[in-house]
Amino acid sequence: MRNKVHTPDNTKDEITIKGIGAAPGIAVGPAYVYSKQIPTVEEKSISQEEIEGEIERLRAANVRSEKELQKIHSFAEQKLGTQNAKIFEAQIMILNDSILMSTIEKRIKAERKNAESVVFDEISKYKRLMLAARDEYMHERAHDVEDVMNRIIRNIQDQRLFSRLEGEAIVITETLAPADAVIFSRNKILGYATDLGGITSHAALLSRSLKIPAAVGLRKATAIIQSGDFVALDGYAGTITIHPSEETITSLQSKAKRFTEFEEQLATIAKLPAVTKDNRTVELSSNVEFLEGVEFSLLQGSAGVGLYRTESQVLGQGQYPSEEEQFKEYEQAAEKVFPHSVIFRTFDIGGDKLAPEFYHEENPFLGWRGIRVCLDRPEMFLTQLRALLRASTRKNVRIMFPMVSTVQEVRLAKDFVHRAKEELRSRHCAFDANLKIGVMIEVPSAAMLAADIAHEVDFLSIGTNDLIQYLLAVDRDNSAVAPLYQQFHPAVLRTIKMVIDAGHSNDTWVGMCGEMAGDPLATILLLGLGIDELSVVPTVLPEIKKIIRSVSHKQAREIAESVLTLSTEQEIKDYLYTTTAKILPEIPLEV
Amino acid sequence: MIEREVRIRNKAGLHTRPAASIVKTAARFESEFTISKDGFEINGKSIIGVMTLAAEQGSTLLLRFDGPDEEAAATAVVDLFDRGFDEE
Prior knowledge:
The complex is a heterodimer of chains A (591) and B (88). By secondary structure, chain A is α/β, with parallel strands linked by helices. Chain A contains 22 helices and 16 strands. In chain A, the strands form 2 sheets. Chain A has an 8-stranded mixed sheet. In chain A, strands 9-10-11-12-13-14-15-16 form an 8-stranded parallel beta barrel, surrounded by 6 helices. Chain B is built from 3 helices and 4 strands.
C-alpha cells in the first residue's frame, strides 16, 4: 500500500493459497522469503602468521554467539515459558564447552586451517553421531548442535543475519522458530506467513503478541512465492494472494475496515455473559495450549478453559515430564482460571503429534494415539492423573480423555483415575474426590455409542476436526481430497445432533472443542442443536459471544431444524450465511 | 589410572541436565576423565561429548580417571551416577 517500489502487477494472474488465520489484520507489500540461512564453509589453508588472528576470530564469534543466545533465551523464557526456553540453555552449554573449543583451537594451529572449516568439521562429527542414534530425542539434539554450529560459523564469517531484509516486508518462511522471531521483530515486518504450524504454534502466538497479521499452515507458500513478489496477506481468513489485483486489494482493505469496526464493538463484550436473548446461558470457554495462553483467553472474556492441550509439555522435550513439573503447570492454570473451570485433556500424542518414544506407523491417524497410548503406558498415565488430581483442590479441574473408540477404554481410564486417587490418599495428598471426568467424541464409533459413554462419565466434548476426518474418510492435509473435508456436511451435523441428544437423555452436558466451535457460521446452528458449551480459539471468542447474545434459543432451534432438512453442504452454508447475516448484519462472515 | 563401571539409573537417561552435572563435577578435578560406551570413547569434561553418548536407562558405561586426584574424582562422579542424578 504505502510501498512505492512494489505495486500490483496486472500482467500476472493472482494465486491464492489458503491456510489458517493466526493473527488478525491485512498486510499488502513485497514478500521476503526466508529460508534457514546455512553458511557455506570453504576450507582454506592459513599461514603460521595467520593462526593467531584466526583464533581471535573464533573467540570473538563465540562471545557474540553467546550474547545472541542469551538474548533469545530470555525472550523465549518470557514469551514461551521456561520449558520451551530450555533448548537455548543446552545450546549455550555447548558454546561454553571448553574441551570442544580448545580442541578446535588446537586443530586450527596444528592443521593450519581457517576457523570455520574446523568448527564445521569438529562439530559435524558429533551431529553425525547423534543422528545415528535410534532415539528421536537425539535427533532433536542433533539439530541443536547444528544450530550452534551455524551460529558460530555465521559469526566467524562476520555476516550480519538477515541484512538482506531491508524496509517493510511480509515474511514468508517454512516455520517460525522463537529465535527467528526475535530477530525479525527488530525490523519492520508487515506480516508473517508460514508453511507449517497451527493456530497455536509459536509463530501464531508471537504474531498475536506483536500484533502483526499472520497466516500459518500455508503448506507450499515458500515454494510458490519468491522474494520481491507483491503479495496480500489476510490474517482473518488465513490466506495469502500472490500478484493480487487492484480489486482484491480494495476488497481486502474494506474487509479490514469492517473487521476493525466490528472489533471495536466487541471490546465492550468481554465482561458480559454468553447468554441468548431468551436467557439460555452457553459456557463459552477457550482452547489453550500453554500456560501463557490462559491469561490471554481470560482477557478475551472466556469463561474458563474448555480444552487444555497437555501434550505441549511433552512435544519436543524427548521425555514425559515428572509429576512435579506437571503439577506445577496444572496448578497454575487452575489458579488463574478460578472461579471458572479448566478441562485438561490427557496427553494426546501420536497421529501427527510425535511422542517421546518414536514409533513408526504406516497410518498414524488410525494408529497408536490418544487414550491408546495412555492405556499402554500405565506409569506415564498415572503420573499425569496424579498431577491433575493434585491440582484439583479448588474443585475447578476436569479431566477429558482423547481418541476414545470403545466403552471399555472409558472404563479402563476411569480405573486409572481411581488408582491415582488411591495412591494420593496413601500419600496424604489433597484432591477433589468428585472431580468430573469426560470423553472427547472424535471417533465415529464413540459418536454411535455416545449414550453408553455418557452413562459412564460426567460430560462429553465433541472434537470436530478428527470426527469429520474419520466420518468422511478425508485427510484434510491431502490437497487432492481437501475440498471433501466439509465441516457442514449433513452427516457431520446429524452426528453432532445425535451426540448432543444422547448426552442430554443421560443428563450429561455436551460441549464442543473443535474448530467448528469457533466458526461464526456454525454458532446459531450449534445453539439450536442444544450444545451446552463451546470451547474456541481465544481470538474469535468475542465474536462468537456477540452472536450468542444476538439470537434467542427459540430462533436458533428453528434454524437448526431447517438445516437438518438440507442435504448438501452448499445449501447448508448458504442458508446459515443468510440467516446469520439477517440476525447480525454487521458481522463480517467468511464463507 | 582408575576404572569404574556405572549403570544409568534414571529413567530419562543421559539427557542434557545429567550431562551438565557430570561435566560440572568432573571440571572440579585436575585428572583426565573419559567415558566409554560400546567401544566409543569421549572426553567426560565435554558437554557435547557426553550428550553424544545417547546413554539410555540401563546402559553401562566405563569411566576412566587419570591424574593426581583420580581417586577423589572417581568417587564424586560415580556418586552422581549412583544417585541417578537426583532425578526420578
